[in-house]
Structure formats: C-alpha cells, structure tokens
Design a protein that fits this description.
Blueprint lengths: L8 H4 L3 H6 L8 H7 L9 E8 L2 E7 L2 E24 L3 E16 L12 E19 L2 E13 L4 E16 L3 E11 L7 E10 L4 E7 L2 E8 L3 E18 L2 E21 L2 E11 L3 E5 L9 E5 L2 E10 L9
Antiparallel strand pairs: 1-3, 1-17, 2-3, 2-16, 3-4, 4-5, 5-6, 6-7, 7-8, 8-9, 9-10, 10-11, 11-12, 12-13, 13-14, 13-15, 14-17, 15-16
Length: about 325
C-alpha cells in the first residue's frame, strides 16, 4: 500500500455528491440529496493550500549503505488543484483534474535528492487527468464505473502516462448513512500495488457527529460548529511526489505522509471555504528510484521522525451548488 498515493487515487473515490447530482430527482429521496449536498463538498472545484512543517530528522540508506543522519530544517509546500466537470448526465459524467505542487526543502547537510551544489531544493510537480464515469445497476444496486487517463511531470518534462479503472457499488444511501464498496485497477508499470479495494462510509449520529471514512485515504469524525463551520478529528493520508534530474538520469521521489490531527473548515459564503489543518505528520518511508524502474527497485530510502504540520487552504466551489427541484 506504500505507493497507491499517486494522483490517480482521488478518482478511485469519486465524490458521492457527483453521482447524486447525475441521477433523476426521483431516483433517490430528496432528504438524501439534502444530506450529501451540504456546505462542505468532499471534492473542491478550485483549491489552493499552503503547508509548513516544523524541522525534523531523518535517516537514510543509499544503494543499501546507511548514510549519516540528516535534518530537514525547512519544508514548505504550495498546492493548487482544479476539478472541472465538462458533462453531467443521469448515466454519464466527464471531468478533468489539474494539479500543481511546489515543494521547497532545505536540509542541514547535503542529501542525494537535493541539488549537488547546495542543501536546498525547489521542485515543481504537475499532473493532469481525464475521467469518464458511467452509472448503471448491478445486483439491483447502483453501480459506478470509471476510467481515468493521466499524465504527470515537472517543469522540465512530461514523465509518466498512467491509467486506472474503477468499479463501485452503492450498498446503502439514506438520510443517515452512505456506504460504497469497490476496487481500483492501476495501469502503471511503476506501481507496486496493481489493484486496491475501496470502501467509503459516512454516517450521521444522533448527537450531530458524523463518521467520514474513505479507505485507504482517510478516517475522520466531524461535527458542524457555529452556523457555517465544521471541525474534524482523525487521520488523512497524502503524498509528496517529484522528479529529480542528475546528469543523464531521471529519478522519481515518492513520500508517504500520514497526517493526524484537527481540521477546521468555515464556509465564507459565495461558494468560498477556508480550511485550517494542524497536527502530527508521520512519514514512515520515502524512496527515490530510477524513473525506468519500479518503486521496489529504489536507489535511496529514507525514514523520518514525526513533525508538526500547519496547513492553510481556500477553495472556490461553483460546481458544488445542487438545487433540488
């Protein structure tokens, strides 16, 4: 499960509200539609966020040989995402996702994944994906099938072309509970996991708390606060992926990130949502490998100590407005 954390994963957990919006108004009770189209859509149409980590130490091995411990003095990241829906029908959805990530890393001593001339690196990563979704029925339940094609790269080159196929069944959908089960198949020679099960569960308790589970991406419990706020506690998984160029070689760096803490979101009106996240980030493993090889055939492997993270975000969601008629 170490390297499912690529840009394709969000398509494997297509937001339930997008599926609801594609249905006839009499296919699902109106109270369900009201439940899933709240003030905080799962997928943000246009999102900008900034992340800062506190300094942390890490150990590493290069070509199997242990290296002296090092320290990341400064880690900053800026992300920009856009999810655009071109076509919505009761049975078909066509959408695209555009992602950009700028990562700045400053180490105490030189590291193999940083430029040779200094201890600081600035990296640009982008990905673009197109996804088509079909909604039908299987075993008398709503079934969701999707196919996704994507490319990614740096400011210098496009690097990889990937594909993914997913299928999910909506097991339950009422005013309190939504549950789906499915599988994602990855068409990527660098992946270590060719298939991944997908399970989503959302349940509203009588005391106002809501369980929000999307495996393997997140486990949260949340509650509305004030008139336009929401607080969440739990764990989310994320990643940092980037490409590194040394002489005539191209490397890919992948780092798994587990963020555990609190999230506060506030609806500012006019489809704007502000977000604050903070807590502890655990980075159990990161690997750098030749782009022509796979994740398991790595050149460098690092294990980092936990760090505190702070994340500020703002999103604009013009496509999130769904009016029940």
């Amino acid at each position: 499960m170490r390297n499912f954390r690529k840009v394709l994963l969000p398509f494997a957990i297509l937001p339930f509200k997008s599926i609801i919006s594609a249905q006839k108004k009499d296919s699902i009770p109106q109270k369900v539609i009201a439940f899933v189209t709240d003030k905080f859509p799962q997928t943000r149409d246009f999102n900008l966020e900034y992340t800062q980590l506190t300094p942390y130490k890490y150990s590493s091995s290069l070509y199997g040989a242990n290296q002296p411990d090092n320290k990341i003095k400064n880690f900053q990241q800026l992300k920009a995402n856009a999810n655009i829906y071109f076509f919505k029908h009761e049975k078909w959805i066509l959408n695209a996702a555009l992602n950009y990530r700028y990562t700045s890393i400053n180490a105490e001593n030189n590291a193999f994944f940083l430029p040779e001339e200094n201890n600081k690196g600035d990296f640009h990563y982008h990905s673009e994906a197109l996804s088509i979704t079909h909604i039908s029925k299987l075993f008398n339940k709503m079934a969701i099938y999707s196919a996704t094609a994507s490319v990614d790269g740096s400011e210098q080159h496009f690097e990889r072309v990937r594909g993914m196929l997913t299928g999910s069944l909506i097991l339950k959908a009422n005013a309190k509970t939504k549950m789906t089960l499915g599988v994602a198949l990855f068409l990527d020679p660098s992946t270590q996991v060719p298939a991944l099960p997908i399970f989503t569960y959302e349940h509203r308790f009588n005391n106002g708390w809501v369980a929000d589970v999307v495996l393997p991406k997140k486990i949260l419990i949340r509650k509305d606060m004030f008139s336009n706020g929401r607080i969440s506690f739990g764990t989310e998984m994320d990643n940092t992926s980037l490409y590194i160029y040394r002489s005539d070689k191209r490397y890919e760096f992948r780092q798994l990130e587990i963020n555990s803490g609190a999230i506060y979101e506030h609806n500012l009106g006019s489809n704007l949502i502000a977000t604050l996240k903070t807590g502890v980030r655990v980075m159990p493993r990161a690997r750098l490998f030749d782009k022509e090889e796979s994740f398991k055939d790595y050149t460098l492997e690092t294990t980092a100590k936990p760090s505190l993270y702070f994340n500020l975000g703002i999103s604009y969601n013009p496509f999130a407005r769904l009016k029940a008629k």
